[in-house]
């Protein structure tokens, strides 16, 4: 502003004054020269004397005019200076009033108009900057993430505390649509609860329930606050219907508009935070639980079994493992449908929980098979518990959709550690073998292992180990291909490569030899063989899509795994863009840094990345955060029960929406009927896989 004042003073004062003085000086010089010349003439020349008098008059007039104009201009400049002296901050620009400054000169009035326009522009810039800074401060801290939203209420408290640093407020509220009706979460910063609730009721109506959270210590009623409210036309994420902020700060029109816009964003963020908390809660639940029965899932069972083996070895006690299988379950499913079959499994789970002790561990292993760990149990105690299970379930009956009675029974196999096996996997194999023995003896029975059974199981493990070694040496493993189709037209987008092994008298599925191959350290060699054979088939067939390969956890710790895969791809002249590697949870999440490094190297080579069985464990969410994921394959149990479980459907909808926002493609597994396919289409899943789409085939 000092620079601007200097320019004005110099321009106005020097220009006008200089012009007038120049004119006056010119007149004076001419007059003086004339008088001087005439002084040599005789006094008789009265005309010369008169001319001398006349010559002095312009000089006096010029001086007078100069004085008057100078005073007028100086007065205008002083007014300008006074206005400029008021400016200490950008906000003071609005106080400047140049319109009362008058120059009485058209040419100089142009300068005044320019000043007025300049100040108006600066004022608008100042307002824009002030509102921008306010908006920026308000928006800070509104990022929702899994780490922040362990408790959405705590997250909202932190956000509101940041808002209070910019805008003073008495309370904030957010209203949600919940099963029991509309619920208001009231966050009190200052003031009384009663007056705040009355104000909210006057805006939203009477049919409300309240939950209160105090974020400030001041309980004295505020002197006055202005309530800003944002209502949504329909429930948004988390069921949020709207919210409000009762502001005690004095805000101008621009600041009020900023606050209204911010409130709309805040309501959506709060709804998102509540939705993320619910989503995280479901993920944590499904990390350990079977979604159909609520029992522990297979993944947790193996962790608990391994833990129990180690604890039993350390403390020198015995424990029992029971494997229970529902008799004739396939017939029940085929006759009465999957929905009725799910009812049977839920009832079996309910009865098992009622029979067992609190310290016993029961899990659904998969399909119609349940596993139970009985800590501190001998063979006699385990047999007694198993017999009670069989007896309780023998009295179970359900009505089918047509009202007919369907009776249910189970066959149970048992094994005791360390009497029947030295480790958890072999113990499970013994108990599982006993299930088949119980079925052979008439079903609805309990079978205990003899020494012959234990020896036969050990021999089978030995034979299977030899089979795996031979499969590596002679290349007896081979790929089969299951199609992955576009959910809208079922056009084949890719194939998942599944591993099979040539047995003595049959084709052995991966589930029967992969765990053992992992335990004896040969799974990576089987992977190499299958990858090479599958890519050879891809090259031969001319198929233009992608191949999905499952990676074993051991691949992550092998330094030369990626090098070998890259070599195979290059030798066969396959574009890495056509290869997708699937990561399953199992052991990989225990070293996230190793997994991140492994994934980054694969992506550098041009391969794609997928998460298999998404939703089966909490780690899946961490994969999305840390890994360059291109596809996720939604856990098949959610898809299979999509039509019968509202919770499973909500989970699939949430997963699909989240992946769409992240640019990740979704694949639904276990699509086994047209009804499931149609439900998946409506949700918006990108691709589908399952027997309805196509069964595994030997050739592309």
Can you give a write-up of this model?
The chain is of the alpha/beta class. The protein folds into four domains: 2-131, no CATH class; 145-287, Beta-Lactamase, CATH 3.30.450; 293-449, Reverse transcriptase/Diguanylate cyclase domain (Alpha-Beta Plaits, 2-Layer Sandwich), CATH 3.30.70.270; 464-689, TIM Barrel (Alpha-Beta Barrel), CATH 3.20.20. It is built from 20 helices and 21 strands. It has an eight-stranded mixed barrel with strand order 13-14-16-17-18-19-20-21, surrounded by five helices. Strands 3-2-1-5-4 form a five-stranded mixed β-sheet, with helices on both faces. A hairpin with a 2-residue loop joins β7 and β8 (369-374). α4 runs antiparallel to α6.
Oligomeric state: single chain
Give the strand tally.
21
Largest sheet: 8 strands, mixed, barrel
Low-confidence segments: 1-8, 144-149
CATH architecture verdict of the largest domain: Alpha-Beta Barrel
CATH topology of the largest domain: TIM Barrel
What is the average of the pLDDT values?
Answer: 79
Which structural class fits the helix and strand makeup? alpha/beta
**Would you state the CATH class of the largest domain?**
Alpha Beta
Count, helices: 20
Cα(first) to Cα(last) distance is: 80 Å
CATH superfamily of the largest domain, called what? EAL domain
Radius of gyration: 43 Å
**Domain module count:** 4
Shape call: elongated
- Percent strand equals 15-25%
Helix content: 40-55%
Largest sheet, spatial ordering of strands = 13-14-16-17-18-19-20-21
